[in-house]
Amino acid sequence: PAFGALRPLKLSNEITLQVTRLNHHSNKLTGALNSLAEINNHLVCGRFRRAEDAIVKHRDLYGLSLITLKKDLFAALDRDGLAGLSRRYKQITVNSQNTAWALLAHYAYDLIDPTFDPTRATLRWLRFADNRIDEHPWYARIIQDELLTYSGNNQSLACALLRYSTLSLLDLTILLWRKQAAHPLDSSIQSHFSSLSPNLKNTLVEHFSTGEIPLARAHNTRDTGTQDLEIFRTSFFFDDIASVVQWRCQLNSLLFAERPETRNPRNSDNSSILISNANRIAQEPSCAMHAITELDSWQTTFLSQEHDLKSRTFLTAAIVAESCRRMLSGTQANCDSIAELLSSTDDVQLFASTETFDALLDSTLAKSSPLLTFVLWELL
What we know:
Elements: H1 11-24, H2 26-44, H3 48-62, H4 66-93, H5 100-112, H6 118-132, H7 137-148, H8 154-165, H9 169-182, H10 187-194, H11 198-208, E1 226-227, H12 228-235, H13 242-255, H14 273-283, H15 288-293, H16 296-299, E2 309-311, H17 313-327, H18 335-343, H19 354-361, H20 364-367, H21 370-379
């Protein structure tokens, strides 16, 4: 589209412009937010037919948006399983092939598809967005921001505001809401959020601060039980809820720890319970299983009912990867214990770079342990 060539203003001007637009349309947007809250309520209560009816009504009244597209696919999967999800995806994209809208639908489909690992889907889509961010920022910036949740600097935030504003004003409203949750100490974001019209701001606070979110039945079967990976997957479809955004931000600080924007002080939280447990494991690898199990209540914090986690593979890999980075700053841990921890952790290499493992390989830890050297070479 022609607006794909637009460039953002500097952040202070861009955010002022977009907030002014939201306030100008505040009455209509308040109606759209109330409609979105109704859709969420139906999904949480398992009323899938009513959720689908509410989505159709919302689309007729307020038009298309990425946030309702995700709810649409979630409802289709929860009601009719994978066959229903595939059928709904085809209906959504049949008249929009080779468009950015179809691409965003494909992105959402990959994340919710129960046969597709959301970890690998996330990393592939992020790589896809990174590779296209300069030439095709119209859709690449949106995908990147959906995955990262936070903004690494003023320029990326200004770009996100511009790109979401061309998607829909409802998506722009949710973006601003998400940013104020992701960056609670950023005075500029908080100030501009406060300047929203009272009806918009009050609706967001009332309906989108916290929520009890369900796992789709296709993601939580009797055979597999509750897997932490499925909690992560579900968070993408309810990131209009501030508590879910804050949960994702803590997790993303580990998943994307080696990206430059993550190392920005505005995004760091060394007091995070996840960082604290990663530090513990770095110093005492044998406590890993206990330290990860302790996080069960954190992992299920936004779910609508108590879940007995059957698998913690996803969070274990993310925390152990962070522990590896912490070990580079010094550890008194037994080298063979580190080797055992790494060899028993599936997919740890997804969340730590080859540079991290190379640095460990060159450290005194590996030089004093043939076993650890062997394990690190296997990871490389």
